[in-house]
Amino acid sequence: MPPKPEPAKQNQNWTPRDSAELYGLERWGAGFFDVNPNGRIEVLHRRSGQGIDLLELVRDVERRDLHTPLLLRFSDILAGRIEQLTDAFRTAMNHYGYDGSFRGVYPVKVNQQRQVVEEVVEFGRPHSIGLEAGSKPELLIALAILDNPDAYIICNGFKDRAYVELALLAQHLGRTPLLVIDRLSELELAIDTARSLNIRPHLGLRARLTSRGAGRWLESTGERSKFGLTASEMVTAVERLQEHDMVDCLKLVHFHIGSQITEIRALKEALTEGSRTFVGLHELGAKPHLVDVGGGLAVDYDGTQTNFHSSKNYSMQEYANDVVSFIQEACDESNIAHPDIITEAGRAMVAHHSVLIFDVLGVDVVPGETEVEPIEEEAPKILHDLTEVLATADDGKFHEAWHDAVQLKEEAGALFSLGYLDLRDRARAERLFWRCCAKVQKIVRTLDHIPEGFEELERAMADTYYGNLSVFQSAPDHWAVKQLFPVMPIHRLDEKPDRRGVFADLTCDSDGKIDRFIDQRDGKHALELHALDDNPYYIGVFLVGAYQEILGDLHNLFGDTDAVHVRLNGNGDYTIDQVIEGDSVRDVLRYVQYDQKTLLEQVRTCSENAVRRGLMSLDESTRLRRRYEQGLREYTYLCRDH
Ligand SMILES: *Cc1c(COP(=O)(O)O)cnc(C)c1O
Description:
There is one protein chain. By secondary structure, this protein is α/β, with parallel strands linked by helices. The protein has four domains: 1-73 and 353-365 and 476-555, Lyase, Ornithine Decarboxylase, Chain A, domain 1; 98-344, Alpha-Beta Barrel (TIM Barrel); 367-457, Methane Monooxygenase Hydroxylase, Chain G, domain 1 (Up-down Bundle); 587-633, no CATH class. Strands 4, 13, 14, 15, 16, 17, 18, 19, 20 and 21 form a ten-stranded mixed β-sheet that branches. An eight-stranded parallel β-sheet has the order 5-6-7-8-9-10-11-12, with helices on one face. Helix 8 links the parallel strand 8 (176-181) and strand 9 (203-206). Helix 7 (161-169) packs across helix 8 (184-197), helix 13 (381-392) runs antiparallel to helix 14 (398-417) and helix 21 (596-612) runs antiparallel to helix 22 (618-633). The two termini are 53 Å apart. The structure holds pyridoxal-5'-phosphate. Pyridoxal-5'-phosphate (PLP) binds at residues 107, 109-110, 132, 134, 156, 256, 259-260, 294-297, 344-347.
C-alpha cells in the first residue's frame, strides 16, 4: 500500500474546527458541546444554543477554592436528555397512532447523588418521570424525593417484608409504587403482606426472557438470569392471584435485558418476547395496562454508531419507534388496548450531563527525537548494527527495520547482562532504538490502517501525561470493563496537537491509566495532545454521568472529587447552583477507621521523642506536625499551588 503523504496542514492553519473533527465532538456530543473560535470547548444551552466557555468555568470554580480533579454537572444537559427521550416517544406514538402514553422512570442506581435525583424529578415533572428502585436503600430515596403522584415508583430488586410493607404503605402516602415480583417467593410475601395491611397492591411481574442482550451486560438476561419469572412461573403467579381474588392487582409486565444494548436486533427480540408475554397474561385473564421495557438504551460514547461495546447501532428515535410499534402490533393482533409504556433508561438520561476535568502534572516524553552522537569506529558492533537499521528504515522496509530494531534492542540487553556492553553503550543502544521506533512510527501513521503488530509501537511511543486523578474513583468502567469515554483537552484547540500520549493517574496501580481512546473504529492506543507549556493543561473526560460516581472506589485513598452543579441561563451566562466538596484526607481515613485525633496524637508523641533524643529540632518537629495537620484537612489529590 503506497504511503499517503503527511497531511499538509501546518500549525498556523489549524483551526478549532479541525480539533472538533479530530476528537469527534459532533459524533458523541449529542448537540451539547462545541468548540469556540478561541479554541475552547463550549457547553451549549439546549434551546438557545448559546454556549459557555468550559475553561472560563473551570477558572471561575478554582477561584472559589475548589480544585481539579473536578466534576461538573450541567443541569441543562440533564433536562435536555429527558426532553430528547420523552420527545422521541411522543413522536413515535403520534407517528404510529398509539393510544397509550409514555411514562419513563429513572433508575436511581445509575447515579444516586441526591442533587442528581432531585434534578431528574424536577425536570421530569412535566413528563411525569418516575423513579426505579433496585434495593431498599434506593426505595427509601424514591419515597422521600418523588412527590409527584402521577409518576411511578418501580420497585425492583430483592425484597424482604420491610421492603414490601414500605412499598405498600406508600400507596396511602399519595405515591404510586409498583411492586415488581422478581421471584415466585416474593409473590407469596406480597400477597401475605397486602392482606395483613388490608391494602390492594399494585403488582408487576418481571419476565425472564430467553432472548439475550448483546454487549457487556448480557448475563443479566437469558434462562440462567438471576431475575424474573419463567413462563410456567408466570402462569403459577396468575393462578395464585386468582385464588386470592387479586388478579386485578396485576398492573404491569416488566423485562430488562441489560445495560448498554449495542445491537437494535437484541432489543427487537426482547420486545417480541416481552409483548407476547403481555398478551399472554391477558389471555390468562389478567389485565395489566403497563409494559415496562427496562433499561438498556445505550450511549454512543465513541460516536461511531456501531455495535462496538462503547457505541450503539441505532438512534434514540429508532429505539422509541421499535418499542412503540412492537407493543402496538402484538396488542392489535389480539385486540388488547395499548398499554402505557415505561422505560427505565438510566444511562441515556444522565451520562451526558457530567464532565470530569483534571489537570496534567507533568509528562514523560519518549526520547525518539533526541540526537545520538556519531558512533565511533571501535564502538561495539551492536551500535553499528542499530545505526544501519536506522539509516535503512525507509518506507518500503519499515516492517523489516522494526523487527530488526526490536531484536537488536533485546540483544543489547543480553550483552549488557553478560558484561559485554557497559552502561553508557547500553544507553546509546536504547537511544538508537527509540530513534528507529520514531522513524518507523512516522511511516506507519501515514497509512490508512495500522498494520498488524504495529499497535504495540503506537503504545510504546506514546508520551505519558500524568493526570491529577484516580481512574478507579472517577472512571472505573474504563478500568473494569474497558469502556471508552471521549477524552480531550478543553482548550488550546486552535493549536495543532502534535504529541501523542496516554494518561497515567495518581495511584500506584499499573492499571491506573487511560490508554484507550475513541476513534472512528474500535479505539486507539494514544491520544493527540499538546506539548505542555507554563500554563495548566486541562483535560475533560466526557459522558461520565452514569454509573462512574457510585462504582468509584478509594484505591490508594483518593476520594470523591469536588463537584459543582452549573445551570446555563441561555444567554451565554451561567449560575453555580450547588457545590459539593469532595473528600478531605481525614474523610477517607475515617472510612478505613483511622481517627484524626489519635493519628495526630501518635505523630506528636513520636516527634516529641525525636526532639528529646536530639534527632530533630523543635522547629522541625513543629513544621512536621503542621504539614501533617494540613495534610489531613486537604483534598486527597495534588494541589498545584504548594
Ligand atoms: C440497571 C438497570 C436499569 C438501568 O439500565 P440502563 O442501561 O442504565 O438504562 C434499568 N432497569 C433495571 C432493572 C436495572 O437493573
